[in-house]
Amino acid sequence: MEHRTLVGDPGNVPSERPGTSPTSTATSASTTSSNTTASATTRIPKCARCLNHNREAAARDHKRYCPYRICTCPKCRQTVQRQEFMAQVLLRRRCQWEEDQASA
Q1: Euclidean distance between CA atoms 84 and 41, whole angstroms
Q2: How many other CB atoms are there within 10 angstroms of residue 68's CB atom?
C-alpha cells in the first residue's frame, strides 16, 4: 500500500488501514498476488476526492463529512463528471433490466 502525504505539510501523518504496518505491507503485497480468491483480500473503497488531494479516507460514512465535497479543482471536477456519467450508465442499465424483466 502506498502512503501519501501532503507536500509541504510535515505534520501530516498518513492514515493506515487497521492491522497493517509498513513492514507487513511489503510482505502482504507478494502474498496478495498469489491469493486471487475473493475471501483472501477485502476491498476497502476510498474517497476519490480525498485521493485527489493525497489523503486516504474510507468512503463509507464519509460523503457528508468530506472536506473536499465542494472542491472545484480540475481533478475534483473530473471526478464529479465521472461519477455523474457512471450514475447515468447505471440508471440506463437498471431501466433496461426492468424492461427485460417485464417483457419476459
Answers
A1: 29
A2: 19
Q: How many residues does the chain have?
A: 104
Can you state the percent helix, strand and coil of the chain, rounding each to 5? 50, 0, 50
Identify any residues that bridge with 58 across adjacent strands, giving them in sequence order. Answer: 46
CB 40 within 8 A of CB 32: yes
Write down the H helix ranges in 4-73: 22-34, 48-52
Which 3 state secondary structure label does DSSP give 3?
coil
pTM: 0.55
Q: What does each C-alpha distance from 46 to 5, 18, 24, 69, 102 come to in angstroms?
A: 15, 14, 21, 14, 36
The answer to whether 52 and 79 are in contact (CB under 8 A) is yes
pLDDT of residue 40: 76
Residue with cell 509498513: 22
d(CA 30, CA 40): 13
**pLDDT band of 38, cuts 50, 70, 90:** low
